[in-house]
Specification:
This protein has 2 domains: 44-154, no CATH class; 183-467, no CATH class. It has helices spanning 6-22, 28-43, 48-67, 70-93, 96-105, 121-137, 146-154, 156-159, 167-175, 181-213, 220-251, 269-275, 278-289, 299-317, 321-343, 345-348, 353-372, 376-386, 395-402, 405-414, 418-428, 430-456. The chain is an all-alpha fold. Helix content is 73%, strand content 0%.
Length: 468
């Protein structure tokens, strides 16, 4: 079951909301936990036990890390990390090296395990690990209520594709939450906004990318447009999911962290990654980059730490060489920014922000080619097209782009803060303050009508981040 399905929108969500608000407050966490387990069971029957095992391991480790002496704590944390990452490694990375060798050789030298990847395992393992490390560090006491900790790990709004939530963010919400019509309305509005981004924009961008890739007469212009469309697709697909997760959580009284902050307007790569998948970036910063020494131990250690983090970030996204190259590409650009600042080149001659933005966006479009193609030959073929192995323009290019410019323009505009700024200005006007509740309701109905029409037609694709 996915959020962008008629079953979820018209059966599961209304049913859970109705049951949640009908039961006494003390039973609401139990309702959410049961709903979350059922939600996961609908897509992953066998591996539900795997998630339950990781949750129980996290609970036991947390309790032990709170009461054991220091030496025993270190051993307990090490065992917990080995078991948790071992679980992730077995299902996600067991075929990484043999699969890479087979791909480079063009034949099957090694037999692969081909274990099905449990949905959402990268997210719930990272949440469990952050909880165990924070308890070890003494940031907060271990959660003694197994039901609450289980809900933290398996909470269905963010279980499948994040954001990666820290326990400290929701610990109070697990015990005390406030509900109101206004919060419910805000949550439904945010959910609907994300649903619209996913179904009405991301899925149509995805369809264009498939059509462009299969074009009989590819061209330079079409290939670059396809690259930009894919980057926008990933942004609207994932940020749309994050909006839905945040909105759903708010309906139930939880405040999840923001995961995107208009990354495509960035003028530097560090800024880009402070705005894109914020929860994952902060996880790697706090649990990998800073423990390795961050930027405190000299330039070479700083650069090593950046490269390490970005190789791991690439691997987190997928167990194949293309994701490593994707992570390395961004890591090299971040290192370049550090070196340019150290040499003072940025200070000697100020580069106009618009030029820096164009450079960052252009390189990001190029790097996401690695993200798109797991087969390196396909990626290299696409790079060849983008750098001139095909004509600048063909007759089919005009046909394919003719009806796409409107969607592309809307997507580019929607990736900036401008629509939000205009909405806030309208909402804060004298008329807006009166009409805002009615306009919000009209927006929800309007989007639901169009989304339903697309879903009935079967015009949707799975969330990209489900495979991570």
């Amino acid at each position: 079951m996915v959020f962008s399905s008629l079953t979820f929108i018209y059966l599961f969500l209304p049913g859970v909301l109705l049951l949640y608000f009908c039961v006494p407050t003390k039973f609401r966490n139990a309702v959410l936990l049961a709903s979350s387990l059922f939600f996961y069971f609908c897509g992953e029957q066998i591996y539900l036990l795997l998630m339950a095992g990781e949750t129980l391991l996290t609970y036991v480790a947390g309790r032990l890390l709170e009461i054991l002496p220091d030496k025993a704590k270190k051993v307990t944390l090490a065992v917990f990390l080995v078991l948790s990452f071992g679980l992730l490694g077995l299902f996600k990375y067991a075929d990484l090296i043999p699969g890479t060798v087979n791909g480079l050789a063009g034949r099957e030298i090694f037999t692969l395990l081909r274990l099905p990847l449990p949905i959402g395992i990268s997210f719930y393992v990272f949440q469990s690990v952050s909880y165990g490390i924070d308890v070890y560090r003494g940031k907060y006491p271990a959660e003694k209520n197994l039901l609450n900790l289980s809900l933290y790990v398996s909470f269905f709004p963010q279980l499948i594709a994040g954001p990666v939530v820290r326990f400290e963010t929701v610990s109070e919400n697990l015990k005390y939450r406030t509900h109101s019509i206004a919060r419910l309305s805000e949550g439904l509005f945010r959910f609907t906004l994300g649903l619209g981004k996913k179904v009405l924009i991301a899925d149509r961008l995805y369809a264009f990318c498939d059509t462009a890739a299969a074009a009989a007469s590819p061209s330079l212009l079409l290939s670059w447009t396809e690259g930009l469309a894919f980057l926008l697709y990933v942004y609207f697909d994932f940020s749309g999911y994050s909006d839905m997760a945040i909105g759903l959580a708010r309906c139930f009284g939880f405040d999840l962290p923001e995961n995107f902050d208009y990354p495509l307007i960035s003028t530097g790569f560090r800024e880009f990654w402070r705005r894109w998948h914020i929860s994952l970036g902060s996880w790697f910063r706090d649990y990998v980059y800073i423990p390795l020494g961050g930027s405190r131990k000299g330039l070479l250690i700083h650069l090593r730490n950046l490269l390490t983090v970005w190789v791991l970030t690439g691997l987190w996204h997928g167990a194949s060489l293309n994701f490593v190259l994707w992570g390395l590409s961004f890591g090299i650009m971040l290192i370049a920014e550090v070196l340019l600042e150290k040499t003072g080149l940025f200070k000697k001659k100020k580069i106009p922000a618009v030029l820096k933005h164009i450079l960052v966006l252009t390189l990001t479009v190029l790097f996401f080619v690695w993200f798109r193609f797991t087969d390196l030959r396909d990626a290299l073929t696409q790079y060849g097209r983008m750098f001139g192995t095909v004509p600048l323009w063909t007759g089919s290019t005009a046909y394919l782009l003719k009806g796409f410019w409107v969607l592309l323009s809307m997507a580019c505009l929607g990736a900036t803060p401008l629509p939000k700024i205009l909405y806030k200005k309208a909402e804060n006007s004298a008329a807006g303050r009166v009409l805002a509740p009615f306009l919000r309701s009209a927006f929800i109905v309007f989007i639901l009508i169009f989304v339903t029409a697309y879903l009935v037609d079967g015009s949707f694709s799975p969330f990209l981040y489900f495979r991570f």
